[in-house]
Design goal:
Low-confidence stretches: 113-139, 262-272
Distance between the termini: 102 Å
Helix content: 55-70%
Radius of gyration: 30 Å
Number of helices: 27
CATH superfamily of the largest domain: ABC-type transport auxiliary lipoprotein component
Mean pLDDT: 79
CATH architecture of the largest domain: 3-Layer(aba) Sandwich
Structural class: alpha/beta
CATH topology of the largest domain: Rossmann fold
Shape: globular
CATH class of the largest domain: Alpha Beta
Largest sheet: 6 strands, mixed
Length: about 600
């Protein structure tokens, strides 16, 4: 008898097949359990190593021993005529079939289980299927993970973060390349995430990752571009340069990524030159510091630190258009949060935006900041033109799509607003502000049930972020659930939103004395006062006091409250006064409808 025939007779081959199938099933189950128990990624690798070591032992065992009715016996001790290996073979075949069915079941379950749903986002209320566009990842989609700061000085983190953001900005300008925006990319900062999981969650086929080690004027940047489907490295490179060459390094990385993704096959423009940049290293570092501070949020200290950094960048390089955009955006945030007077903040923001456009006429972000100021100046037509121009210049920008959604929604163009907000989600699927934009567009379109699901997604993504609870509270109020709305308003971090929400709930429930007490408290509160004129109009509209509501709308117009042009024309809270002739007059004067 040949050696192969003897292997078959002793069921060694069947044991090998059984072991392989059983090992695969164990690995799949192990990965699920390890993820649930929080076991580090090396746990699965350890299990695989142990199973691999066990294979030769299993084969040796199958060769040496035979399972008989009397129990295990050494094969050489079993009389050939009494051998039951054929019977054992049938049992092994049955076990293999059962395990194969289990394997198929696991594959199917893994394919259809909602990975997007997390423990903090129950599946029944998850709006992912509704909010995410149905398009699949294309061969020219990419996520840029935050470059890891390997420098001894951890204060250099602004540099690695800034380089990542600059690469995102450059790549986002490449026609035909879908680039996941900052919020979603930076959600993986400091996490040991698998490339395959990142690609699945962000709906991309390629991931760029890297590290930065900065020491004095020397910097080493290591990058690698990975295809998620098979974890293969499409391209990798290490750059050792003087900080003065950082712009050349940035251009080289961007160009080589574009080449690796073969964007030219789509007849797209492969130019990745940054619009509105600088050639001054010190100005660039100051600009990165400004972006780093501004990304911390809406706190006054961080905003003022950002403003100082942007102004330093402009002092070093007066022709740095992107620094002017950063300054303009920071000034509007300071003014909108009443950290500085409206007139001062918006005037300076307009000047900075216009200077950026003079320096770089094709810089989409400059038109965004200008559009925000124009809206605050109650010039709806001009703001819309700026938004349209920004979209034309850079439709692949998350900021552009999100802002465009806001402009379209304020004009009552609900379909266009919802489409743009969904595009923003596609570009940055983990950004809570994108879901807030979609929830606002749906709310203004009176699609409250859908708006609730989307707003809850924003809360699940960032429960401590400003506005998420306030926006959800507004939707619940519109759905006729004031007690649930009040619970959300109480969780809101922004004071004026929290107090406005409470007053609206009291007014809706007919508790007018409490609503008016809340309004009076807002008037006396620091950083609120008459700056919340539009919100006072909303509260009085809900109280049924039309004259007082229109008095506050007039005050909002006088002080150029941004809420007037951003919300008034579509605001469901103002529905009680919408039939009043004074409403139509104000809407026409603001440019929301054609003037006679």
């Amino acid at each position: 008898m040949s050696f192969y025939s003897e292997l078959k007779r002793r069921n060694v081959i069947r044991v090998a097949v059984l072991y392989a199938v059983a090992s695969w099933v164990l690995l799949q189950v192990g990965e699920l359990l390890f993820n649930a128990l929080g076991v580090p990624p090396w746990g699965v690798r350890l299990l695989f190593a142990l199973l691999l070591l066990g294979l030769p032992l299993a084969l040796i065992f199958a060769w040496v021993y035979e399972l008989t009715p009397e129990g295990l016996k050494r094969e050489q001790d079993v009389v050939r005529e009494a051998s039951v290996t054929a019977h054992t073979a049938r049992k092994l075949d049955l076990i293999v079939i059962v395990l194969l069915l289990c394997a198929v079941g696991l594959v199917v379950a893994d394919r259809f289980r909602g990975r997007a749903g997390t423990a903090s986002t129950p599946a029944p209320t998850s709006p992912a299927a509704m909010t995410m566009p149905p398009s699949a990842a294309s061969a020219v989609s990419i996520a840029v993970l935050p470059f890891v700061n390997m420098s001894e000085d951890k204060a250099n983190e602004y540099f690695s973060d800034g380089l990542t953001e600059e690469l995102l900005n450059v790549l986002a300008n490449v026609q035909g390349l879908r680039v996941i925006a900052r919020t979603s990319s930076f959600a993986y900062k400091g996490k040991d995430a698998k490339i395959a999981d990142v690609a699945h969650d962000l709906n991309v086929d390629n991931v760029l990752e890297g590290s930065v080690r900065k020491a004095g004027v020397r910097v080493r940047i290591t990058t690698q571009l990975i295809r998620a489907s098979d974890s293969s490295h499409l391209w990798s490179e290490t750059y050792d340069r003087d900080v003065n060459d950082i712009f050349a390094v940035q251009d080289e990385i961007s160009k080589e990524v574009v080449d690796a993704l073969k964007v030219r096959l789509l007849q797209a423009k492969a130019s990745v030159q940054e619009t509105g940049g600088t050639h001054a290293p010190d100005a660039y570092e100051a600009y990165l510091q400004g972006r780093f501070q501004k990304n911390k949020g809406e706190g006054e200290d961080s905003l003022r630190a950002a403003l100082a950094a942007f102004e330093e960048a402009i002092r070093i390089d007066p022709g740095y258009a992107r620094a002017y955009v950063g300054k303009a955006g920071t000034l509007t945030s300071l003014a909108s949060n009443a950290y500085m007077p409206y007139d001062t903040g918006f005037k300076q923001s307009r000047d900075a935006s216009m200077r950026a456009i003079e320096l770089a006429p094709d810089l989409a972000e400059a038109y965004l900041t200008l559009g925000f100021v124009q809206a605050a100046d109650l010039d709806v037509a001009a703001a819309t033109i700026s938004a349209e121009h920004a979209l034309q210049l850079n439709p692949g920008s998350f900021d552009v799509q999100q802002s465009y959604a806001g402009f379209q929604s304020s004009l009552g163009n609900h379909e266009a607003a919802i489409a743009a907000a969904k595009k923003a989600i596609e570009l940055d699927p983990l950004a809570p502000q994108a879901y807030l934009a979609l929830a606002s567009a749906l709310t203004n379109a009176r699609q409250y049930e859908k708006a609730e699901a989307v707003a809850r997604r924003a809360v699940a993504l960032a429960p401590d972020r400003s506005s998420v609870h306030g926006d959800l509270g507004t939707v619940l109020l519109m759905l006729g659930r004031p007690d649930e709305a009040l619970a959300e308003f109480e969780l809101e971090r922004v004071q004026w939103q929290r107090m406005t929400g409470r007053a609206l709930v009291f007014a809706t429930k007919g508790e007018k004395a409490q609503a008016r007490a809340e309004l009076a408290a807002m008037l006396k509160a620091k950083n609120i006062g008459e700056a919340a004129s539009y919100q006072f109009a909303e509260i009085n509209a809900r109280l049924g006091d039309k004259d007082e509501a229109f008095r506050w709308l007039a005050k909002a117009r006088e002080i150029r409250d941004p809420g007037l042009t951003a919300t008034m024309f579509v605001d469901p809270i103002l529905d009680p006064i919408r039939a009043d002739p004074r409403y139509d007059t104000l809407a026409r004067e603001l440019g929301f409808v054609a003037k006679n």
